[in-house]
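ok so I'm stuck.
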Amino acid sequence: MMIWRKICFALAALAALGLCSGAALADENPFRPKAPFKSAIVHYKHQGSETGQSTLYYKGQDTAEYKDTSTTVWGMNQGQEKTITITRPKEVIVVDLVKKEGMKTGNQMAYMAEEYEKLNPAEKARVKKNAEKMGQSMLGMAQGGQPQIREGQFMGKPVQITSVMGLTSYVWKDKGVLLKQEGSLMGIKMDTVATKVEVGVPVPGEKLQPPPGIKVVYNENADQEQRKVAKQVMEMLKDPDFGKGGGMAAPPAQGAPAGAAQGGEQPAQSQEADPVKEGLDTMKKLFNW
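replied:
not stuck anymore, here's the structure
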């Protein structure tokens, strides 16, 4: 469903932007986050539009999420998701346990980090400043100009509790690990809670590898879309007119015909909408960029 793809791309870009705000701004490259644990296992229960359970394994710079859920969005059953997502510093592997197939791409955040490293010092400073402005804008929208961020405790852990766009998230302070999320976004109910947190426990090596017998194939198209998102988001963040209410033009999608950026008609084979560009354009309209 195309609208769902657009939302996924928009939310992915928003998540990437969020890594730049707050404490991450102090890092030399905010898109190279540090591992929160040497080893840990976090178990989750999902009871919103997505129902089921998942487990997140941490081992150094590698993580693996095992998910067994079903999703209903806007009254439509999206089916069962039984997957393993293995995230490494330079690659991401997604295994569909129902279809018995795997896909590999580069790591989105590695591409963001690469784009950031291409910037000069002034542009890097602007990216950090604009990303922080982005975070403040989101919070302002959520509470009528009055951001709600507070600190508290959850499961005996110190957490930062943030309410934004109808969602309230409890994130383990200084770890960046989600422990609870509740609320709704565009009719999608989020209700996720950690049920058990184990830190320092051994994580079996096989948990961070694709299951035997499942072939993992490199998906070049998906990888190129991730590179495109990274490049376009960085173009937005380094723009001096970022956040000035319409002073920033949308960067043309890579590979688009030369006349497309000026409103010219595209050839018939290129008229299908670009979900990456449309997802980013949706964010621009939402925040009046």
